[in-house]
Amino acid sequence: MSPCAPRNRWLLSLCTCPACERAYGEAGADPAEVRVRAANAVRRQLAGPSPAAPATRDDAVTALGRPLHDAVLRAREAVTTSLLTERRPAAGGKPVCVRATADPYACAGKTGADPAALTRTGVGLPSPTRRFAALRLW
What we know:
The chain is α+β, with helices and mostly antiparallel strands and 138 residues long. The protein is 51% helix and 10% strand. The protein has 6 helices and 4 strands; from the N terminus they run αααααββαββ. The longest helix has 22 residues, at 66-87. The N and C termini lie far apart (42 Å).
């Protein structure tokens, strides 16, 4: 497995800025534990790559443990929805495009979050087919 495997990209995308660390804590995770477990999982992969699980979720749960993994996903969604909610008025009523996906492990230029959580921020789905490739703030 290459160091650029989905699990490693996701683990390396975990932010440790003060806002994200606060969100980890509010979601029930110790920010220091998030940093240590993610770094250790990536180091293990670099030292002796193992094959990827069929789903990135399985690899992420293995790397962080179920409770920490679930808290990280809650925190990431909370930070994303908070940012959209708080900054939406700055657009002055103009639409703001948000690249998003329903895949919570996305980290290549798209925001991964639950579509329902994003729509609660005022985000509308621009397509009647409800494709979730791009969202728009109204």
